[in-house]
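To: structure desk
From: M.T.
Subject: fold request, one chain
Message: Could you run this one when you get a chance? Sequence is below, nothing fancy, just the single chain.
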Amino acid sequence: MFERYTDRARRVVFFARYEASIYGSPCIETEHLLLGLVRENHRLVEWYAKPEDSIGWIREQIQARQSGRTQVPTSVDIPLSDEAKRTLMYAAEEADRLSQRRISTRHLLLALLHPDSGLASRLLEELGLRLDPVRDDIARRLQRKHAPDADAGSPPESG
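Reply: Done. Structure tokens follow.
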């Protein structure tokens, strides 16, 4: 399932699994994917988010909704929820839309911005992130990156 994923994108899913276990969740939800993304590439989220401490705010919001559960041992297999599976499918669609073979952290961010990506989508929206503007910005920056006079002003890596 993760053949097209870059190493960093794979680590997002690995960290999401870890976050789900810490919060005692029976499955990996979109908010865990968001925490995994923040853990692996916090600069990507910070690039687009409005408040300075957006990462701390995200964690606080998720913690407030997940409290009261017992931590799950990391040896226990934790499956992806249907919503998380759908979000990972969106990541592949976003990579295809941008004509990129590999699925990176950029594509995961775009997937988490889809309106039906649950809590992650709502939290990112509260931070001022919207799918279309972020998608347009990433596409524009990727075009510039491949142009002969590319500039360095792009969001932190996606690989």
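Reply (cont.): The CA atoms of residues 41 and 147 lie 25 Å apart. Let me know if you need anything else for the meeting.
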